Amino acid sequence: MTKDQETELLDRFSLAVFLEAVRCLDENVSTAREIDIAMRAGAGLPVGPLERADRIGLDKVLARLEQLEAERGERFHPPDRLRALVAAGRTGVEAGRGFLDY
Amino acid sequence: MYVFKAAVLGAGTMGAEIAQVISLSGLPVVLKDVDQAQLDRGMAHIRDIYARRVQRGRISEREAEDRIALVTPQTDYRGFADVDLVLEAVPEKLALKQAVLAEVEGQVAKTALLATNTSALPVTEVGAKLQKPQRLVGMHFFFPASVMKLVEVIAGEQTDEESVDSAVEFVEGIRRIAVRVRECPGFLVNRVLMAGLAEVFRAERDLGLGPKEIDALIAASGLAPMGPYALADALGLDIAQEVSETLKEAYGERFDLGGRISGLIADGKRGAKSGEGFYTYTG
Q1: Under CATH, domain A3-95 is a member of which superfamily?
Q2: Straight-line distance from the first to the last Cα atom of chain A, in angstroms, rounded to the nearest whole number
Q3: Contacts of B191 in chain A (CB under 8 A)
Q4: Each residue's pLDDT tens digit, B109-144
Q5: A44–B224: do the CB atoms touch at under 8 Å?
Q6: Model's pTM, two decimal places?
């Protein structure tokens, strides 16, 4: 496996999980905090998908999604909520706020 | 509403595991099944879970005996008049769950809370045959319930706020983590997880990689405790297929597994429980 393949695989897995978590948030299935708790306690993820994106930086996540959308299709289309957070400067842990507050 | 006594309907593995969790918290629980042999197997399973806790020094033998004594196995509705919460854990068949709940509704107080343990069926439909569907909540325990801490508490369309609050309080009382989830296909955890699984299957095709190297990479990356192929094997490939079909129908192609596991299932490879899936299991 080449380094590029590794990166693509891990990004596609983690971003597919992240995007579905955001859809759940958009549909009011649960709150951001509870979605992350559920994915940790129910699926054993070490960090919830929303906090993980906040840690990476939402501007970086957005850029990567735009790239994957171009390369792999519409399912990676960045959610409006993500664009709005980035536009508002709520880019995650470093900014003190993202999907969650820090 | 405080639960002083609970009842679990269905003494299969899940029902027994849930009864064990309830008894461990010190609450009396009736374990009911229509089949005495199933009830015996359920009680044996509960004793096994306690025996392992004793072995690991988590609980004394005496305490384990006391907790086991809190579980009352029975095939009838004796003592259901003072049950505050009934949780059904019968097989995942809609008509069966509806019938079981409609029957028990006539045996408990009007104030008793009703719960359905389902990982897939809509709570609204499960409650369709009830006189008071507003008191039915979904409680999705994860397998094995004696180990897994999360319970998704699901409100159906008719479930009232008070019932959801009582359910959350109960789940926390038996030392589990409750997350409130609005009803949707797959609920929360399985939906989000299956989206990741389907994408990995697509990446396997696009990038020409093998399941074992993908699993090793994902496990080593720290993104998830195990790779998606090992996870699918653990879940049962037939179950994974079924869940993904439901999700695909509800949300579209992003949940398509691309026939990745239907071939294995056709060959009788259903994952860890059948001895073979993506991996081979012995013993």
Answers
A1: N-(1-d-carboxylethyl)-l-norvaline Dehydrogenase; domain 2 (1.10.1040.10)
A2: 37
A3: 20, 24
A4: 999 999 999 988 999 999 999 999 999 999 999 989
A5: yes
A6: 0.94
